[in-house]
Write a structure and sequence with these properties.
The structure holds 2 protein chains of 2 kinds.
Chain A: H1 3-18, H2 24-49, E1 55-63, E2 68-74, H3 76-95, H4 103-122, H5 126-147, H6 152-181, H7 188-193, H8 198-215, H9 224-231, H10 234-259, E3 266-271, E4 274-276, H11 277-297, H12 302-323, H13 326-358, H14 363-367, H15 371-374, H16 376-390, H17 396-411, H18 413-437, H19 450-454, H20 462-480, H21 483-497
Antiparallel strand pairs in A: 1-2, 3-4
Chain B: H1 6-22, H2 28-48, E1 57-65, E2 70-76, H3 78-97, H4 105-124, H5 128-149, H6 154-183, H7 188-196, H8 199-207, H9 212-226, H10 235-242, H11 245-277, H12 279-299, H13 303-324, H14 336-371, H15 389-403, H16 409-424, H17 426-451, H18 467-485, H19 488-504
Antiparallel strand pairs in B: 1-2
Helix pairs in contact in B: 1-2, 1-4, 2-3, 2-4, 3-4, 3-11, 3-14, 4-5, 4-11, 5-6, 5-11, 6-8, 6-9, 6-10, 7-11, 9-11, 10-11, 10-13, 11-13, 11-14, 12-13, 12-17, 13-14, 13-16, 13-17, 14-15, 14-16, 14-18, 14-19, 15-17, 15-18, 16-17, 16-18
The chains are: A mainly alpha, B mainly alpha.
Amino acid sequence: MLAWTIYLSFSGALIEALLPKGKATHARCVALAVALAGLAIAVGGFIHGMGRGRVILVDAAWVPSMGIHYLLAADGISRVLVLLTGLAAVAGVLFSWNIELRTNEFFAFFLALIGGVYGVFLSFDLFLLFVFYEIAIVPKYFLIAIWGSTRREYAAMKLALYSFVGSAMVLIGLLAAYAASGSHSTGLIALGHAGLPVSFQMWAFPLVFIGFGILAGMWPFHTWAPTGHVAAPTAASMLLAGVVMKLGAYGCLRVAIGLFPHGLDPWGFSFIGVGSWRDVFAVLAVVGIVYGALVALAQTDFKFVIGYSSVSHMGFVLLGLVTLNQIGVTGAVLQMFSHGVIAGLLFAIVGRIVYERTHTRQLAELEAMHLSKRLPFAAWAFVIAGMASMGLPGFSGFVAELQVLIGAWMTKPWWALAAGVGIVVGVAYTWRAMQKAFFSDAPQTAHGLEHDHTHPFAAITWPEVAGVILLTGVSLFVGLFPRILLDAIEPAVKTLLAGGGQ
Amino acid sequence: MSGTPVLTLMTVLPLIGAVIALWSGKHARSVAICATGASLALSLYIWTQLPANGSIGLVERASWVPSLGIEYHLGVDGLGALMLVLSAIVTLMSVDAAHRVHHQPGLYFGLVLVLESGLFGSFTALNFFHWFLFWELSLIPAFFLIKLWGGARRGPAATQFFVYTMAGSVALLVAFLAVFVATRSMDFPHLTLLASTGELEQMVTAHIGPVTLWLAVGVLVGFAVKVPMFPFHTWLPAAYAEAPSPVTMLLTGAMSKMGVYGLLRIAIPLFGHQITQMRTPLLVLSVATVVMGAWAAAAQKDLKRVFAYSSVNHLGYCLLGIFALAVPYSVTNAGQLASQAAALNGVILQMFNHGVTAAALFWFISILQQRTGGHRGIDDFGGLRKPAPVLAGLMGIALFSSLGLPGLNGFVGEFLIFRGVFSLAWVASAFSVLGLLVTAAVILTVIQKVFSGPVPEHCIGFPDLHKGEWLALAPVIGLMFLIGLLPQIIVDNVNPTVQNLLAHWRF
């Protein structure tokens, strides 16, 4: 059943592309209907999959000579991420309700991107996974280049180039794995059983991990992320931070760690305390957490704060992955879900609810606007989203980051301590942004803002309210009842870590 | 009624009230009064349902996050139940006092009720995960109550309050992560058991290293900020002074008790042995809290700041009593257990009494402010006993309760603390007596300046309490007499708990 999320999204994209121009309302309604249907299937699939392990959805020979199969399957990790994609799609449509420029094309690209993302999360054939992965990159480029803002061409190109470099590295690794296995199959399960030589895994692992890690915002390859997020239109930022970065992290887990587990073994020597690729990537993850948070603290553009915060939060995902223990990896997957929801919400508030009304994202200018009084809905939505992003207990981020920290601590305590510093700085930058943007007591400046008072901001619309309620509700629900996702993630992680062919 | 999740109901009730209040605009205060009144009734019911042997009762248990071994585990003993009653009383007083919130009343009372829920949740939690959730939950509404309804310098005060408490929370969280990694448990009773046999320390040493002492420090810092303890108190005067007076009532009356409660429920049970090792420095800081609080109060000109520092002083006695307990059990000293029991009973009584009295004092300040257009300097008033004899009489009683006059509630707790501490740590108690003297001087000065002497211009025609006000205040004043004269209504329930706690703690 879950496979229909992919077909539905692509058909939706096709319908949007064929819709007559100028019928913006139709385009919106079609997009919302498709996104909702996708979400419904994702929820249905999630509920149906409870208590089951990996379920094969479709398995058909595609290029028999090379052993390529059209193989779609879902385990607990896939189901959780498909659910996230469904949520992000619905929220994305709701928060792009006001797009007037080439509406139908916008939603066509949007749905194509969503379809690609669903595809990646459900592919259990390497070649197929790679195809979907590439499909997801192209619409992203157009979404930013056509509907973006600040330096959009530059940002779109940068993002595309980074993505392609990453893909190239992944492709080399995959081809080499295919050749080295000699099993004439590109199925993840078959390759996992092939018993690739340890020396081969040793170099293939870092290649593929970095290749996917680029898209996951791994420091120091993260620089596409803040510029890309800022330039992208709101819905695209939401998808970029919400699900596209998860594609990278998912690849790191499913492909790099799943196929090349011995790549994480110790080298046999150590250099300043770093004795394996695992240590290397843990260091990069921790640096990303702390660096992203510190840079976010220094930003003057509201959207850049959120952009860098994504780098920091994704660092937790990567750190959780390389802990290689049950708690840490489970935490990493939960953090993917949690960050997807929360980052989407933050970008929606900053990019859609606030920016579309104030036409500035400069914190200094927002300070003089007293938004807590003039846009109370935005202010309180940001307070809740900010609390979730800080990782306050009761929200999904707390459970996820807590598990990552515990997992890291059980591996190497100093990883956890350094990441803990990132959390503290995380509280600080979220707090700073909230204070400055919404709750400042600064006097009105002569920025020509007086006229703003004579023109009250446009009223909050129903799609905005619905989107905020949807995303905050999910974060809160998962924060209070993490079991609902953990029960699905844990067995899948256990199987994956045990090797045993994914 | 076994089987009814009373404690969950207790926590959820204010949240429901908050949602209703948020949407009821001008009627928010009535909604809040109903919700807090119902909470008070429920808390009194819980108070009557405690197990007679002082152990934890009304337990609710369910699996929550099995992968981390986290359970939904609630329960109260005499200490927890008393704190529920206190929180309910103080919140009701605060809502009563806040009858002039014109700016967004729905939001204001909604936040107050969320704060109340945070208090209830943290006083009933028996699992770190659950407890921490509510500990943090109470912080957010408190911040916004200061930030949005506070005085002129509310911005920095709110931020300082938040940053300090958050830093303390991080210290707590890190310490608990370590405990979890070592023991795979976040359950307070289970960890208490491990600590009482010394296993906790062994497990921490085996899994992490010889850092148990540092974990104890981390936990202590978290609570020291909240109580607050010298030198972590610097956020307090600004926050108490800038918060609107009804919110200050909540901060001092109920929220500060979260810190003391945390010491008793978490720090001492888990790290009693480590705290014994640090006993001398901790006692020095406690005495410093007592004495410096009193001296600082003497130096203030703003009534709210006077009582803010006086709160530091009063909570200092609790700290003194708690840390004085930390002496290893010795067979030769037969009176030791009796002294410890006296001190601990005193600490718990003092928590309750300070809550009621301090909240009442800030209520009176808010009345003074309302009648004089916001004046609250100690020199802004004079001779009020002539135009407002009822106000002077009632406020005088509250002030004497704060001073610790026998016959009123304040005396009982402090007496028991000194009775216990004297034989456990006589040097510390000797120095702390200095605090008592200075506090007495401060409070007598306030009485003299506000109620006697010439009446200043803006106080001419000062209206006395009207019927509604004194009817609201009378039960509180009555409670002060009741506890002062019949302390057994509290001690009868608290003493079994004290014995039970002392039997499970290892110093």
